[in-house]
Structures are given as C-alpha cells and as structure tokens.
TrEMBL record:
Record organism: Streptomyces niveus
Pathway the protein acts in: Glycan biosynthesis; Cell wall biogenesis; peptidoglycan biosynthesis
Name of the molecule in the record: Uncharacterized protein
Domain of life: Bacteria
Pfam families: Big_10 (PF17964), YkuD (PF03734)
GO CC terms in record: extracellular region
Catalytic residues in the record: H343 (proton donor/acceptor), C362 (nucleophile)
InterPro entries referenced in this protein's UniProt entry, alphabetically: Big_10, FHA_dom, LD-transpeptidase, LD_TPept_cat_dom, Transpep_catalytic_dom
PROSITE patterns: FHA_DOMAIN, LD_TPASE
C-alpha cells in the first residue's frame, strides 16, 4: 500500500473530475455565446433599435437601398452621326434631375435648362457638327437618394455647308449708320433657325432687330443711328444650324466693332450743296453736282460701304453702255450696290459745282486729276469720312433708294423692319 495508487473509489473519483471540468467550460462558453448574441442581435425590448443604424428602421425602410430615380439620355451612349438639333434629350423618371452637364471635347458647356418639375432637360440651342459631347446627369428620388448617368455621343459630319459673309470687319471703327450685314453662301429656307443662332448686342444697350432681304441676306440695326462710341458684339453660332435641308452652317465666331464719331452729310440736289455735320455741329458746306435730269440721283439715307482713293468707273457696268469709262476717278466712296458713289470730279469745270447737275446719278465734288491736292473739297471729304458714315440725299427728282440697295436699311420704317 505504501504510496501506491489504489484502484477503488479514489481512482474513479479522479476520472469523474474531467467530465466536471467539461461541463463547466461548456456552461461558460454557452453563457458567452448568449452574451454575444444579445450584444449583436438586439434585445428586442420596447424602444430598441438595430444598434448600428444599418438595419431596418421606420417601419422597414432600408436606408442603403438603391435610388429609385432613373436617368435616361438620348441619344444612346457612343452614338455616331447624331443630328445637331432635336436629338439630345435627358429625362428622369421616379425622381427629379438636379444636375445636367453637357460639354464638347474642348470643355465648352452647352447651355440648357431643367424643365419645371425636374423631369427633363434640353439644350438651349443646336449643337455643333462633327463634335464629340459628354453628358453627366444626376437625379434624386423622393428619399433624396442619388442616381447618375454618364454617356458620350458624336454629331454628324455635314456634307453640305454654308457661311455668312459679314460686314463690318472685326475690330473696325465705323460710322453711326453701319448695320451688321450677313450674306449667306446658300439660300436659307429656315430663317428662324439661322436668326436664332446670331446674337447682336451693344454697349450702351439698345434694341437691335434683324431683317431678311430675300433668302440669303440678313441685316441687323437699331431703330435710329448708333450712338457715337457704342461697342457692338456679333456672335455667330452657326456651326451645326440646318439652314436648309441637309445644309449646315460651319461658323462659330465673335465679331466686335466700335462706332466712331457721328458724321452725317446732307446733299440737297436742288440747291446743289452738301452740309457736313459732325457730332451734331455743321463743319462744312460744299458745292456739289448731282444727277442730270435724265440720270437723277436717288433720294434717301445712304451708308458709305467702300472707300477708294482711285477707281475705274465704266458706264457699261451699270447700264449706261459706252457713255463713259473713266479709269482714274479720285476719292470714290460707294453709296449703293447699283453704282451710286460720292466721288471727286476733275473733268467738269469749276463753275459746274453748285450750279448744275451733270452726273449719271452720282454725287460729284470738285477735285483734280490724281487727287493729289488736299485742298480740294473731294479730298477733304474723303479724309474726314469712314465706312459707315451717312450721306442723305433730298430734293432729287427720283425715288427713294431701296433699303437693300447697299447698306441702306434706314430707308425702311422701323415697324416694317421688325415684321
């Protein structure tokens, strides 16, 4: 027996302690598990919540659910040869548009606005041709959840195009009578679309309206002559405008010009004189010769559109056959498309001016051959004049000049001009 283990109850008791330890560990583990479940699963007691705010809340609404708003962009993503007008439309269903950004490949934004109710957006004007655009649109649903749509498309490459030849030139200083005049290289059958693409503004501001002469010319002017010092800006947004079926504009240009001092000269064909008024003050009275009784000068307000120190005048070009062909007419300034000029005359005697009307419809001022004498009335008037100055003819035995014969829209009443 001396210290040896006995095989009776003592040994059995030793074996019985292990199950006891296992049951204690299991109870501890079960208690820990229950504690863990209680901590993570929620007690479900009155006023309890999900603990981390990401579960169900307020009657089962799930805060991280996807937005119900759906943004649709037409044309589809990646579309080619898209029409420049009427094709781009962005809409939202089950929500409202909050942001719409449309830009061309240079980063220039396309103006547009979200319609009332936030369900649609359309561009304010046509798109440019042969241009890639990107669209980024965002909408929110009734719960304020956001949905976005991004896409790209490319507009058509026009096969047939037109431009507008414009006057006056960019950066020029012109007289108070100068209109903005555009002559298009193709006849326009959608004048409203073309006119919407042209914006003419002035500082100081004044109402400016356009008027079409036929289907290929559009002029803009205020009701009365421009004020001296006015700054005029012409924005030609013609790129992509369908001016006639299948024919698109290709200009995107801004033209700026300034109105200089005011100079308006009035020719009295009966009195055979011309009074020159500069900035409201008469600065000179000049003797002239106007159209002869058989070839009278038009009445009306005429704008100087060209200046030539020397030019050739051939009667055959304006319907007078071989009656004259003068190769060196000095100080000539055009007043009409049909051939009316105010110019120097060296072939008539000095006594003619102020006493007889002998021209073929032009207004003649005394001059010398070659126009070298700066003291001659014609040389003085030429030096004083700029493109856009006004020459008014009155008391001639002729009709008023047509408003489209030169830059002479001032001969049309404002009420008719704005129709």
């Amino acid at each position: 027996m001396n210290g040896q283990p006995i095989s009776g109850a003592s040994a059995e008791a030793g074996r019985a302690r292990r199950p006891g330890r296992s049951r204690g560990f299991a109870a501890f583990a079960l208690g820990g598990l229950l504690l863990f479940v209680t901590a993570c699963g929620g007690g479900g007691g009155e006023g309890g919540d999900s603990g981390d705010g990401k579960g169900e809340k307020d009657g089962g609404k799930v805060e991280n659910a996807a937005s119900q708003a759906v943004v649709t962009v037409a044309p589809k993503d990646g579309a080619k040869s898209v029409a420049t007008s009427g094709a781009l439309k962005i809409t939202a269903s089950k929500g409202k548009l909050t942001t719409v950004d449309v830009k061309d490949s240079k980063g220039n934004a396309v103006d547009g606005k979200i319609a009332a109710g936030g369900t649609a957006w359309e561009p304010a004007r046509h798109l440019a041709g042969a241009t890639k655009y990107t669209v980024h649109a965002i909408a929110k649903d009734s719960e304020g959840r956001v949905s976005a749509k991004d896409s790209t498309f490319t507009t058509l490459v026009p096969k047939n195009t037109f431009i507008g030849h414009y006057t006056p030139e960019d950066g020029s200083t012109v007289g108070v009578g100068m209109p903005v005049s555009l002559n298009f290289t193709r006849g326009i059958t959608d004048p409203e679309a073309v006119e919407r693409a042209i914006k003419v503004t002035a500082v100081p501001s004044v109402p400016i309206e356009g008027h079409w002469f036929g289907n290929d010319r559009l002029d803009f002017r205020p009701e009365k002559y421009w004020a001296a010092g006015t700054k005029v800006t012409v924005e030609l947004n013609l790129d992509g405008v369908e001016g006639r079926p299948g024919v698109y504009g290709e200009q995107a240009k801004t033209v700026k010009f300034t109105i200089g001092r005011s100079m308006v000269s009035t020719v009295d064909a009966k009195a055979k004189t011309m009074k020159v008024v500069k900035d409201g003050k008469q600065i000179k009275k000049i003797s002239i010769t106007a159209g002869a009784p058989s070839t009278t000068t038009y009445n009306g307000e005429m704008v100087i559109s060209e200046k030539h120190k020397v030019t050739r005048m051939n009667g055959a070009t304006v319907g007078f056959g071989g009656e004259y062909d003068i190769k060196d007419v000095p100080h000539a300034m055009r007043l009409s498309t049909s051939g009316t000029f105010i110019h120097g005359n060296y072939w008539a005697s000095a006594g003619t001016f102020g006493s007889a009307n002998v021209s073929h419809g032009c207004v003649g001022l005394r001059d010398v051959r070659g126009g070298y004498d700066k003291n001659m009335p014609s040389a003085w008037f030429y030096d004083q004049s700029i493109i856009g100055d006004v020459v008014i003819v009155k008391n001639s035995d002729d009709k008023k000049i047509a408003p489209d014969n030169g830059l002479n829209g001032w001969n049309m009443p404002w009420a008719q001009w704005t129709k």
